[in-house]
Amino acid sequence: MTGFVQTQSIDARTAPLAARRSLFRVLFGDVLSTVSTLVILFAVIALAPKLVSWGLLNGIWAGEGTQCTGAGACWAFLRAKYPFILFGIYPPGQYWRPIGLIVIFIGLTLYSLPPKNWKTSTLWAWVIGTVVALALMAGGVLGLEAVPTDSWGGLPVTLILTVLSLGLGFPLAIALALGRQSDLKTVKYICVAVIEGIRGLPLLSLLFIVSILLPLMLPDGLKIDKLLRALVAMTVFSAAYLAEVLRGGLQGLHNGQGEAADALSLSWWSKTRLIILPQAISKVIPPLTNTVVVMVKNTSLVLIVGLYDLLSAGRAALADPAWPAPFAETYGFIALIYFIICFSITRYTHWIERQNLFGVNR
Amino acid sequence: MAFIELNGVNKWYGQYHALRDVTLSVDKGERIVICGPSGSGKSTLIRCINALEGHHQGTISVGGTALTSDIKTVEGVRKSVGMVFQSFNLFPHLTILENCTLAPIHVKKIKKAQAEDLAMSLLERVRIGEQALKYPGQLSGGQQQRVAIARALCMQPDVMLFDEPTSALDAEMVKEVLDIMVDLAGSGMTMLCVTHEMGFARQVADRVVFMDAGQIIEMNTPDAFFRAPQHDRTRQFLSQILH
Ligand SMILES: Nc1ncnc2c1ncn2[C@@H]1O[C@H](COP(=O)(O)OP(=O)(O)OP(=O)(O)O)[C@@H](O)[C@H]1O
Ligand SMILES: [Mg+2]
Question: Which region is the signal sequence (chain B) (predicted)?
Answer without folding.
Answer: none
